């Protein structure tokens, strides 16, 4: 069971590690990222940032689907850098009711749509696909922020 799926380019950091995992009770934090899953140094940093008592999994998209299918009763907090990773999950049978978008930062070719959300055309296309598949998309920086419908910002 996925308690929350969040897009945050910083992956696990103070806000994710404490505010979000507290608000959305989970047993494990799952980072889904192809590059990071192959980088032992980055993996060790993320594992250290994960709150005590929570399992930390750092996997690519294929392994994420298999792990989620094999552990339907475990509560996961999923965090990714890019919406494509979550689209992959949905297209491979992993149900997602909603996605929280909170940390997509300025890069060349992106435009700002909210305080901490900058998107490019590829992301917009991915968000539209997710929306078409019935996934609600919201923008919130912290759990206590008011939820904003991402699709109204695009």
UniProtKB/TrEMBL annotation:
Q: Which residues form the PTS EIIB type-4 domain?
A: 1-154
Principal localization reads cytoplasm
- Gene3D superfamilies given in the database record: Phosphotransferase system, sorbose subfamily IIB component
Q: Does the keyword Cytoplasm apply?
A: yes
Sorted alphabetically, the keyword list is: Cytoplasm, Kinase, Phosphotransferase system, Sugar transport, Transferase, Transport
Q: Which PROSITE patterns match?
A: PTS_EIIB_TYPE_4
Classification via InterPro entries: PTS_IIB_sorbose-sp (IPR004720), PTS_IIB_sorbose-sp_sf (IPR036667)
Q: In which compartments does the protein localize? A: Cytoplasm
Highest taxon in the source lineage: Bacteria
Report whether Electron transport shows up as a keyword of the record: no
Which protein, by its recorded name, is this?
Answer: Mannose/fructose/sorbose-specific phosphotransferase system IIB component
Record the organism: Breznakia pachnodae
């Amino acid at each position: 069971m996925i308690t929350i799926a969040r897009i945050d380019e910083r992956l696990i950091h103070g806000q994710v590690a404490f505010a979000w995992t507290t608000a959305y009770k989970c047993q494990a934090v799952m980072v889904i990222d192809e590059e990071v899953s192959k980088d032992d140094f980055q993996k060790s940093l993320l594992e250290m940032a994960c709150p005590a008592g929570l399992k930390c999994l750092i996997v690519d998209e294929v392994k994420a689907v298999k792990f989620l299918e094999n552990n339907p009763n475990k509560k996961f907090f999923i965090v990714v850098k890019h919406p494509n990773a979550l689209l992959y999950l949905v297209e491979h049978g992993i149900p997602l009711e909603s996605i929280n978008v909170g940390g997509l930062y300025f890069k060349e070719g992106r435009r700002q749509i909210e305080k901490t959300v900058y998107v490019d055309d590829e992301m917009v296309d991915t968000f539209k696909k997710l929306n078409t598949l019935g996934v609600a998309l919201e923008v919130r920086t912290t759990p206590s922020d008011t939820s904003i419908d991402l699709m109204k910002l695009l």
